[in-house]
Amino acid sequence: MDLTISLISHNSKKDLEFLLPSLFLALRDITAEILLIDNCSDDSTLEFIKRNYPGIFARKNKSRLGYGANHNQNLAIAKGKYVVLMNSDVILTPEALFLLLQFMEHNSNIGIVTPKILNEDGTLQYLNKRYPTVSDLFLRRFLPVPFKHLFEKRLTYYEMRDVGYDSIIDVSFVSGAFMFCRTDLIKAVSGFDERFFLYFEDVDLCRRAQKTHRTVYYPDAVVTHQWDRAAHKELKWMIVFMKSAFQYFNKWGYQLF
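Below the sequence we write its predicted structure tokens.
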């Protein structure tokens, strides 16, 4: 089997209504399984899947789990040579998965690859990153907008805008919104560190995977990510972000700049 598609839904039925048609179109020439975890939704996600997509293996959690813990459940039973870890608010272009699959098949030293990720209006999401420092996170999360232009060079460096998004490049880490990975590699590094409920689990996974394989950005493949940036600015998510940041720096070391 070529691919395992790992999905998580927390009240994401509306997103899945857009994602799944694009996913099945992108899988038309690929052997795959689709595994979905319903993370305690109350929007009838599971009923929607069973009624409209009986071929998807869907399960519902008894209690709400974090991003990494949910994907780890799917990784434990994944049968595909590659696993696609993706958000439910992604829409794929018809050729995206085929291009990523062929790219990985021809580059055995690459462990994780990510496509070009666009906003709904077609603008680019700058999701390629260098390893975060304490100052990077402060500038991005807490510096008032009127002052951010003073640190534009540092912010663009962190988001790898200095090398651009038009060519194939090695990156420090890629966003958990869409990660195309070698299944055996992700299992070999024991999947996600479940101590991260949300945020930083992607950079932590990439760092561990990079001990043996490269992490690469491949712009020929394209997806759209309907990210609700405003929701992640809410206080509860800021608290989760800070907790994960402390866990990350405690694990990998504090670098100020």
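The domain at 3-130+163-228 is CATH 3.90.550.10 (Spore Coat Polysaccharide Biosynthesis Protein SpsA; Chain A).
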